[in-house]
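== Item description ==
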Amino acid sequence: MTILGHRAPLTAQIGMIVVVVYLLTALIGPWFAPYGQSQSVGDTWAPSSAHMWLGGDQIGRDMLTRLIYGARTTIGIAAACTIISFFIGATLGFTAAVLGSWVDTLLSRLVDVIMSIPQLILALIVLGVFGSSIPVLILTIAIIDSTKVFRLARALGMNIAVLDYVEVARMRGEGLWWIIRSEVLPNASAPLLSEFGLRFCFNFLFVAALSFLGIGVQPPYADWGGMVRENAAAINFGLLAPLYPAIAIASLTVGVNLVVDWLLSIDARPSGAQAEM
Protein backbone atom coordinates (compact mmCIF):
# COMPACT_ATOMS: atom_id res chain seq x y z
CA MET A 1 0.00 0.00 0.00
CA THR A 2 1.60 3.24 -1.18
CA ILE A 3 0.62 6.86 -0.48
CA LEU A 4 2.40 9.93 -1.87
CA GLY A 5 5.18 7.72 -3.18
CA HIS A 6 5.91 6.14 0.21
CA ARG A 7 5.16 2.52 0.95
CA ALA A 8 3.27 2.06 4.20
CA PRO A 9 4.80 -0.35 6.73
CA LEU A 10 2.77 -3.24 8.10
CA THR A 11 1.71 -1.31 11.22
CA ALA A 12 0.40 1.59 9.14
CA GLN A 13 -1.46 -0.81 6.83
CA ILE A 14 -3.13 -2.42 9.85
CA GLY A 15 -4.06 1.03 11.12
CA MET A 16 -5.56 1.97 7.73
CA ILE A 17 -7.64 -1.21 7.66
CA VAL A 18 -8.99 -0.51 11.16
CA VAL A 19 -9.82 3.11 10.29
CA VAL A 20 -11.51 2.17 7.00
CA VAL A 21 -13.61 -0.54 8.69
CA TYR A 22 -14.86 1.89 11.33
CA LEU A 23 -15.50 4.64 8.77
CA LEU A 24 -17.56 2.26 6.63
CA THR A 25 -19.42 1.15 9.74
CA ALA A 26 -20.21 4.76 10.62
CA LEU A 27 -21.27 5.65 7.06
CA ILE A 28 -23.31 2.65 5.94
CA GLY A 29 -23.55 0.39 9.00
CA PRO A 30 -26.91 1.72 10.29
CA TRP A 31 -28.54 0.68 7.01
CA PHE A 32 -27.65 -2.93 7.82
CA ALA A 33 -28.20 -2.83 11.58
CA PRO A 34 -30.57 -5.62 12.66
CA TYR A 35 -32.67 -3.37 14.93
CA GLY A 36 -33.33 0.26 15.79
CA GLN A 37 -30.84 1.90 18.13
CA SER A 38 -33.49 2.42 20.85
CA GLN A 39 -35.46 -0.79 20.28
CA SER A 40 -35.61 -3.28 23.17
CA VAL A 41 -35.55 -6.79 21.76
CA GLY A 42 -34.52 -8.97 24.68
CA ASP A 43 -33.92 -9.27 28.41
CA THR A 44 -31.51 -7.16 30.44
CA TRP A 45 -27.92 -8.14 29.54
CA ALA A 46 -29.23 -11.04 27.52
CA PRO A 47 -26.51 -13.54 26.46
CA SER A 48 -25.29 -13.83 22.90
CA SER A 49 -27.70 -15.64 20.62
CA ALA A 50 -28.61 -16.09 16.98
CA HIS A 51 -30.72 -12.92 16.93
CA MET A 52 -28.45 -10.90 19.28
CA TRP A 53 -24.86 -11.74 18.36
CA LEU A 54 -23.29 -9.63 21.13
CA GLY A 55 -26.16 -9.97 23.57
CA GLY A 56 -28.24 -7.18 25.08
CA ASP A 57 -27.53 -4.08 27.13
CA GLN A 58 -28.97 -2.87 30.43
CA ILE A 59 -32.51 -2.49 29.04
CA GLY A 60 -32.46 -5.29 26.49
CA ARG A 61 -31.31 -3.39 23.39
CA ASP A 62 -29.10 -5.20 20.89
CA MET A 63 -25.43 -4.42 21.62
CA LEU A 64 -24.32 -4.92 18.01
CA THR A 65 -26.93 -2.44 16.78
CA ARG A 66 -25.91 0.07 19.45
CA LEU A 67 -22.24 -0.29 18.50
CA ILE A 68 -23.03 0.35 14.84
CA TYR A 69 -25.10 3.45 15.56
CA GLY A 70 -22.57 4.53 18.17
CA ALA A 71 -19.85 4.52 15.52
CA ARG A 72 -21.77 7.07 13.48
CA THR A 73 -22.42 9.29 16.51
CA THR A 74 -19.01 9.16 18.18
CA ILE A 75 -16.86 9.27 15.04
CA GLY A 76 -19.11 11.84 13.37
CA ILE A 77 -18.99 14.23 16.33
CA ALA A 78 -15.23 13.82 16.73
CA ALA A 79 -14.66 14.44 13.00
CA ALA A 80 -16.90 17.53 13.03
CA CYS A 81 -15.09 18.90 16.09
CA THR A 82 -11.71 18.37 14.46
CA ILE A 83 -12.67 19.96 11.13
CA ILE A 84 -14.15 23.05 12.83
CA SER A 85 -11.23 23.37 15.24
CA PHE A 86 -8.75 23.25 12.35
CA PHE A 87 -10.67 25.85 10.39
CA ILE A 88 -10.74 28.22 13.38
CA GLY A 89 -7.26 27.49 14.73
CA ALA A 90 -5.40 27.42 11.41
CA THR A 91 -7.11 30.57 10.12
CA LEU A 92 -6.37 32.59 13.25
CA GLY A 93 -2.88 31.11 13.64
CA PHE A 94 -1.82 31.96 10.09
CA THR A 95 -3.42 35.41 10.40
CA ALA A 96 -1.43 36.11 13.58
CA ALA A 97 1.77 34.90 11.93
CA VAL A 98 1.38 36.91 8.73
CA LEU A 99 0.12 40.16 10.27
CA GLY A 100 2.13 40.07 13.49
CA SER A 101 2.11 43.20 15.65
CA TRP A 102 -0.92 43.74 17.91
CA VAL A 103 -3.03 41.13 16.08
CA ASP A 104 -0.57 38.40 17.03
CA THR A 105 -0.37 39.66 20.61
CA LEU A 106 -4.13 39.87 21.04
CA LEU A 107 -4.89 36.43 19.59
CA SER A 108 -2.01 34.78 21.47
CA ARG A 109 -3.12 36.22 24.82
CA LEU A 110 -6.72 35.14 24.16
CA VAL A 111 -5.56 31.60 23.43
CA ASP A 112 -3.39 31.63 26.57
CA VAL A 113 -6.43 32.56 28.67
CA ILE A 114 -8.51 29.70 27.24
CA MET A 115 -5.68 27.20 27.63
CA SER A 116 -5.11 28.25 31.25
CA ILE A 117 -8.46 26.66 32.16
CA PRO A 118 -8.35 22.84 32.31
CA GLN A 119 -10.05 21.42 29.25
CA LEU A 120 -12.46 19.14 31.08
CA ILE A 121 -13.49 21.80 33.60
CA LEU A 122 -14.15 24.34 30.84
CA ALA A 123 -16.26 21.82 28.93
CA LEU A 124 -18.21 20.95 32.10
CA ILE A 125 -18.97 24.64 32.70
CA VAL A 126 -20.08 25.37 29.13
CA LEU A 127 -22.17 22.21 28.75
CA GLY A 128 -23.69 22.74 32.19
CA VAL A 129 -24.82 26.24 31.21
CA PHE A 130 -25.91 25.69 27.59
CA GLY A 131 -26.93 22.02 27.73
CA SER A 132 -25.53 18.90 26.09
CA SER A 133 -27.15 19.10 22.68
CA ILE A 134 -24.99 17.81 19.85
CA PRO A 135 -24.43 21.26 18.21
CA VAL A 136 -23.34 22.74 21.56
CA LEU A 137 -21.12 19.73 22.24
CA ILE A 138 -19.42 20.01 18.84
CA LEU A 139 -18.87 23.77 19.05
CA THR A 140 -17.57 23.59 22.63
CA ILE A 141 -15.00 20.91 21.90
CA ALA A 142 -14.02 22.58 18.61
CA ILE A 143 -13.31 25.95 20.26
CA ILE A 144 -11.35 24.35 23.09
CA ASP A 145 -9.32 22.25 20.67
CA SER A 146 -8.70 25.13 18.26
CA THR A 147 -6.27 26.65 20.76
CA LYS A 148 -3.82 23.78 20.16
CA VAL A 149 -4.22 24.12 16.41
CA PHE A 150 -3.64 27.88 16.70
CA ARG A 151 -0.33 27.29 18.46
CA LEU A 152 0.90 24.93 15.74
CA ALA A 153 -0.39 27.04 12.83
CA ARG A 154 1.16 30.20 14.29
CA ALA A 155 4.55 28.52 14.74
CA LEU A 156 4.49 27.13 11.19
CA GLY A 157 3.23 30.41 9.76
CA MET A 158 5.92 32.49 11.45
CA ASN A 159 8.63 30.31 9.92
CA ILE A 160 7.07 30.56 6.46
CA ALA A 161 6.05 34.26 6.58
CA VAL A 162 9.69 35.44 6.64
CA LEU A 163 10.72 33.49 3.53
CA ASP A 164 11.53 35.26 0.28
CA TYR A 165 8.53 34.14 -1.76
CA VAL A 166 6.16 35.51 0.89
CA GLU A 167 7.99 38.82 0.89
CA VAL A 168 7.74 38.92 -2.91
CA ALA A 169 3.99 38.29 -2.66
CA ARG A 170 3.68 41.20 -0.21
CA MET A 171 5.65 43.45 -2.57
CA ARG A 172 3.30 42.50 -5.42
CA GLY A 173 0.45 43.78 -3.26
CA GLU A 174 -1.20 40.42 -2.58
CA GLY A 175 -3.77 40.45 0.22
CA LEU A 176 -3.73 38.57 3.51
CA TRP A 177 -6.05 35.74 2.45
CA TRP A 178 -4.20 35.19 -0.84
CA ILE A 179 -0.90 34.86 1.01
CA ILE A 180 -2.38 32.44 3.55
CA ARG A 181 -4.18 30.35 0.91
CA SER A 182 -1.48 30.29 -1.77
CA GLU A 183 1.82 30.63 0.08
CA VAL A 184 1.53 29.64 3.74
CA LEU A 185 -1.06 26.83 3.76
CA PRO A 186 0.49 24.65 0.98
CA ASN A 187 3.86 24.71 2.75
CA ALA A 188 2.35 23.87 6.14
CA SER A 189 -0.03 21.14 4.96
CA ALA A 190 2.15 18.13 5.86
CA PRO A 191 2.52 18.83 9.61
CA LEU A 192 -1.09 20.01 9.75
CA LEU A 193 -2.25 16.72 8.22
CA SER A 194 -0.38 14.75 10.87
CA GLU A 195 -1.74 17.02 13.58
CA PHE A 196 -5.26 16.47 12.24
CA GLY A 197 -4.99 12.76 13.00
CA LEU A 198 -3.71 13.44 16.52
CA ARG A 199 -6.38 16.03 17.24
CA PHE A 200 -9.05 13.62 15.97
CA CYS A 201 -7.85 11.04 18.50
CA PHE A 202 -7.95 13.57 21.34
CA ASN A 203 -11.41 14.79 20.34
CA PHE A 204 -12.68 11.24 19.89
CA LEU A 205 -11.51 10.28 23.39
CA PHE A 206 -12.82 13.56 24.81
CA VAL A 207 -16.30 12.95 23.37
CA ALA A 208 -16.28 9.44 24.79
CA ALA A 209 -15.10 10.73 28.18
CA LEU A 210 -17.83 13.38 28.36
CA SER A 211 -20.45 10.79 27.44
CA PHE A 212 -19.06 8.45 30.09
CA LEU A 213 -19.51 11.25 32.64
CA GLY A 214 -23.10 11.72 31.48
CA ILE A 215 -22.74 15.20 29.96
CA GLY A 216 -21.86 14.24 26.39
CA VAL A 217 -24.19 12.58 23.90
CA GLN A 218 -27.58 12.09 25.51
CA PRO A 219 -30.10 9.24 25.08
CA PRO A 220 -31.63 7.92 22.93
CA TYR A 221 -28.55 8.38 20.72
CA ALA A 222 -26.04 5.56 20.96
CA ASP A 223 -22.50 6.59 21.90
CA TRP A 224 -19.57 4.38 22.78
CA GLY A 225 -18.58 6.33 25.91
CA GLY A 226 -22.16 6.36 27.13
CA MET A 227 -22.49 2.65 26.43
CA VAL A 228 -19.53 1.92 28.71
CA ARG A 229 -21.16 3.94 31.51
CA GLU A 230 -24.61 2.43 31.02
CA ASN A 231 -23.34 -1.15 31.12
CA ALA A 232 -20.55 -0.74 33.70
CA ALA A 233 -22.50 -2.68 36.34
CA ALA A 234 -22.46 -5.77 34.10
CA ILE A 235 -18.82 -6.30 35.06
CA ASN A 236 -19.99 -7.28 38.53
CA PHE A 237 -21.80 -10.26 36.97
CA GLY A 238 -18.93 -11.30 34.71
CA LEU A 239 -20.64 -10.02 31.55
CA LEU A 240 -18.86 -8.50 28.55
CA ALA A 241 -21.38 -5.78 27.64
CA PRO A 242 -19.21 -2.76 28.64
CA LEU A 243 -16.11 -4.26 27.03
CA TYR A 244 -17.45 -4.12 23.47
CA PRO A 245 -17.64 -0.29 23.25
CA ALA A 246 -14.40 0.01 25.22
CA ILE A 247 -12.63 -2.23 22.70
CA ALA A 248 -14.09 -0.16 19.85
CA ILE A 249 -12.76 3.07 21.41
CA ALA A 250 -9.31 1.59 22.02
CA SER A 251 -8.94 -0.09 18.63
CA LEU A 252 -9.92 3.00 16.62
CA THR A 253 -7.56 5.17 18.68
CA VAL A 254 -4.69 2.75 18.12
CA GLY A 255 -5.49 2.47 14.40
CA VAL A 256 -5.45 6.24 13.86
CA ASN A 257 -2.22 6.57 15.84
CA LEU A 258 -0.51 3.91 13.73
CA VAL A 259 -1.36 5.86 10.57
CA VAL A 260 -0.35 9.20 12.11
CA ASP A 261 2.99 7.80 13.28
CA TRP A 262 3.76 6.77 9.72
CA LEU A 263 2.73 10.19 8.35
CA LEU A 264 4.96 11.88 10.94
CA SER A 265 7.90 9.68 9.91
CA ILE A 266 7.37 10.71 6.28
CA ASP A 267 7.20 14.38 7.22
CA ALA A 268 10.41 14.11 9.29
CA ARG A 269 12.26 12.15 6.61
CA PRO A 270 14.89 14.23 4.75
CA SER A 271 14.35 14.88 1.09
CA GLY A 272 16.50 13.19 -1.52
CA ALA A 273 18.72 16.24 -1.94
CA GLN A 274 19.26 16.54 1.79
CA ALA A 275 19.93 12.84 2.14
CA GLU A 276 22.70 12.99 -0.45
CA MET A 277 24.50 15.83 1.32
About this structure: The radius of gyration is 22 Å. The chain has one domain: 8-40+60-266.
